[in-house]
Amino acid sequence: ITKIRSIHSKDDLNIIAIVEQDNHEQSSLVLKYGASAYIYNTLTKEQVCLVVNNLLDVYENRLITNRTKEQIEEYKTKLSKYVSPQIYQSILTDLGKESLDSKTKKLTIFFSDIVNFTATTESLESEELTSMLNSYLVVMSEIALKYGATIDKFIGDAIMIFFGDPFSKGIKEDAISCVKMAIEMQNRLESFREEQKINGVVNPFHIRCGIATGTVIVGNFGSNERMDYSILGKFVNLASHLEAACTPDEILV
Fold this sequence. Notes:
Layout: H1 2-5, E1 16-19, H2 24-32, E2 37-40, H3 45-80, H4 85-92, H5 96-99, E3 103-114, H6 117-122, H7 126-146, E4 150-155, E5 158-163, H8 171-198, E6 207-222, E7 227-232, H9 234-245, E8 251-252
Parallel strand pairs: 1-2, 6-8
Antiparallel strand pairs: 3-5, 3-6, 4-5, 6-7
Helix pairs in contact: 7-8
């Protein structure tokens, strides 16, 4: 039994040991060294079949359970792509209920969009546009997450981000992180534009960025069927207006 178990685990292989009837020492030993079950050498054929069938049922249930776990992990991975990582983790942890309640909080809000995006879209096929926009959003998202940002949503070519919820380093540090993020985004876009030009893009991406810090309402908004964890308030509107008023390739705070 020990030799077999060194090759096959209990999940892979069931071992049924035959022991002498009423020999409790043998029964204990075979289970200790890896047997899945034991039967007495005096059992009838029907009794042996019953033991085997019970083990097969256990094995089948274990396979179903493992398959279900794999499916759950797959669903969780897919779901995580549709919400900010911080929000996703909050939902899955014990902090979820507390951190996802609606509340008033001082946050730093960031908006950006691509200048003359409509003109760019008209010169590209849908597949090219999708690939280019997704490449841009991947780069911007990586930078945002690097600085601990909560990515609220993508609105076409626009990005809405906030700092300070559900996790915060402090109001001042959150604001500084947001500005550093915006600077790195603008710097990274310089090399991104060179890549676009090499690929034949006529109108490479230039972006505007707006940043504001102020008190907002943060929490769940929506219906019983569809909820959105987001922020509301005049400082959200201010950040959006600053972005719209900003000079291309710059940041207005």
